[in-house]
Amino acid sequence: MIRIVTCARLAALQQDAEGARERAREIQGAADRAYAGHLRTAWNLTADAEAAERAAEAERADAEIAREILERTEAQLADARASVTEQAARINALTRDLNAFAGAVVLLNYGKLHSVHPDRPAAERHAASFGVGLQGWGPTRDLPAAEVDWRISPLSKWAVADGGDAA
Q1: Cα-based distances in Å from 167 to 9, 22, 48, 104, 132
Q2: What's the confidence (pLDDT) of residue 55?
Q3: Domain coordinates of the chain in residue numbers?
Q4: How far apart are CA 106 and CA 84, in angstroms?
């Protein structure tokens, strides 16, 4: 089949073809712009993801350092608590000793320390073992301690005197 095309028809077809090419160029330009936008978005998201990963790694390193510091601090705290417990036990023992010695006395022989006793009766019994009578421990004379053969004195008074030679 042969078709006869007129000049007007040919001009109309060329114009339609030129319009289609122009439309294809517009659509291709829009597609190129959309693709470029997509690439920029993908590039930006990749850069953001890499920056976030670096920041997360730095945070993990900081967290590890903080964890190590916390572990050392907990160990030091445990040591300090143990030390406090030991010190409290020692203080309690010393307090018991101090309370036990609150009424303690010393037995002096010519002003020199002979022995320490929890109370006066214990000192008198100890002195009796050396032949000193259980009686006669009345008020001491005004003689210096160095001139009295046996004397009982409160530990607190004897301990604070110079050289322990309290009267």
Answers
A1: 147, 128, 90, 16, 19
A2: 96
A3: 20-100, 103-164
A4: 34
Predicted pLDDT at 67: 96
- The CA distance from 20 to 13, in Å, is 10
Q: What 3-state class would DSSP assign to 150?
A: strand
- The b/e string for 118-151 (b: 16+ C-beta within 10 A; e otherwise) is eeeebbbebbeeeebeeeebeeeeeeebeeeebb
Cα angle 78, 80, 85; round to 5:
95
Q: What is the model's pLDDT at position 127?
A: 86
97-131 tens-digit pLDDT:
777 777 888 888 888 888 888 888 888 888 888 88
Q: Which percentage of the chain shows pLDDT scores above 70?
A: 88
Q: Which two tokens stand for residue 24?
A: 């294809």
Kindly give, in sequence order, each residue whose CB lies less than 8 Å from that of residue 108, ignoring residues fewer than 6 positions away. 114, 145, 148, 150, 151, 152, 153, 158
Q: Partners of 108 in the beta sheet?
A: 113, 151
For residue 105, give the H/E element and its range.
strand 105-109
- What pLDDT score does 162 carry? 45
